[in-house]
Amino acid sequence: MAQAIDDLIRVMDLLAERNESVPVVVEGRNDVSGLRSLDFTGEIYALNQGKSLIQRVEEISACRNELILLPDFDHKGVELKDTVKRYVEGMGKTANIYYWSRIRSFNLVKCIEDIPKAIERGIYSAAMGKAIKSYAILQGIGIKR
Asked: Buried b vs exposed e over 86-112: b needs ≥16 C-beta within 10 Å?
């Protein structure tokens, strides 16, 4: 699990860097808040804004050649990713799903908004594991705490 969290952190760092020049498209405002809490500073757009999906995608992609798609990883999110990807590519633009695929492969979260909590939990667990291991090593060589 610690390795998956480390890998997730690396991918999120790369995504945050890429987001400085390419907008990220998520499902809702909680997803936007989750990415902002991870210090994403670029453009992040929520699809759920009370407009039709086609209108919203046209609006977001109007002056852009590439969008990073980052819907949730549940059944609805997978369908949304496929639909938006087809539509964006049909307009002759790039729909980047690399980060979505990488994050999904770690199998740590179902929703984008849960990524900050998963990272925090993973870091806390890893720190506790190191503390327990350190304590066990000290006990093994006869040092009591």
From this structure: ebbeeeeeebbbebbebbbebebbebb
